[in-house]
Design brief:
Distance between the termini: 38 Å
Largest sheet: 9 strands, mixed
Number of strands: 9
Number of helices: 7
Structural class: alpha/beta
Radius of gyration: 17 Å
CATH topology: Spore Coat Polysaccharide Biosynthesis Protein SpsA, Chain A
Order of helices and strands: EHEEHEEHEEHEHHEH
Number of domains: 1
CATH superfamily: Spore Coat Polysaccharide Biosynthesis Protein SpsA, Chain A
CATH class: Alpha Beta
Shape: globular
Helix content: 25-40%
């Protein structure tokens, strides 16, 4: 049984995916399997590596792709990486493994915002607590690891929150009493590009989903934000 199941959900971004995969395979002093969950479209040419598995999600959506990855995971812990992001610290998994071995159930690291226009990276280094998560989501999913037992105890991601399933999950973790352990080092580069910028129609869908999240957790009025708003 590997220590980590690294899960990369992907949908028609083969060039970005190849770079994400390379950043995982570059991890040092880490015991892991790598699951690529394809939600549709072209895949990168996958490296021949015995640690890798490929799953098909048949365009059932991003939340379903993540749930499929968790269901197939064999590791003691889960680590997430979006297909357009890259791990930039080769000891990300080793640091997370040490924290989990020390009793943590959930870890998150810092990151940098990497802009498509070539402008300088900007640091993303924010703490997160149960209280702060009631106002903002300041956790980068591509820097998150947690025990598979935690996921099993809290249940699946909420498919009714396609834009905010991650924030919902963090709130559920915090309210379970599991500490949110920050690893205060930049471990991931979050790619900021035109494909992840919201158009007007998507903004309205996100606002509706944000209202649903607020109603579910009793958060009150929340303002629509992106992670780039925090740097």
């Amino acid at each position: 049984m590997p220590t980590f199941s690294v899960i990369i959900p992907t949908c028609n971004r083969p060039h970005f995916l190849a770079e994400a995969i390379a950043s995982v395979l570059a991890q040092q002093d880490a015991d892991f399997e790598l699951l690529i969950v394809n939600d549709g479209g072209a895949l990168a040419s996958l490296p021949q590596d015995g640690r890798m598995r490929h799953l098909e999600n048949a365009r059932r959506g991003a939340v379903a792709a993540r749930s499929l990855g968790v269901a197939a995971a064999r590791g003691k812990a889960i680590a997430w990486l979006d297909d357009d992001d890259q791990w930039i610290d080769r000891h990300h998994l080793a640091m997370a493994a040490a924290a989990l071995a020390g009793g943590a159930d959930f870890t998150f690291g810092d990151g940098v915002m990497r802009y498509e226009d070539g402008s300088a990276d900007r640091s993303f280094a924010r703490d997160a607590t149960s209280a702060s998560l009631a106002q903002d989501n300041t956790i980068l999913i591509s820097a998150v690891t947690y025990t598979r037992a935690l996921h099993q105890s809290l249940g699946p991601f909420d498919a009714a929150l396609p834009y905010y399933w991650d924030w919902d999950w963090y709130l559920r973790v915090a309210r379970s009493g599991a500490p949110l352990q920050r690893i205060a080092k930049p471990v991931v580069a979050i790619r900021v590009h035109t494909a992840n910028m919201s158009g007007e129609a998507q903004k309205q869908a996100r606002q509706d989903n944000l209202s649903a999240l607020s109603h579910k957790h009793g958060l009150g009025e929340l303002r629509l934000k992106n992670h780039t708003d925090f740097v």
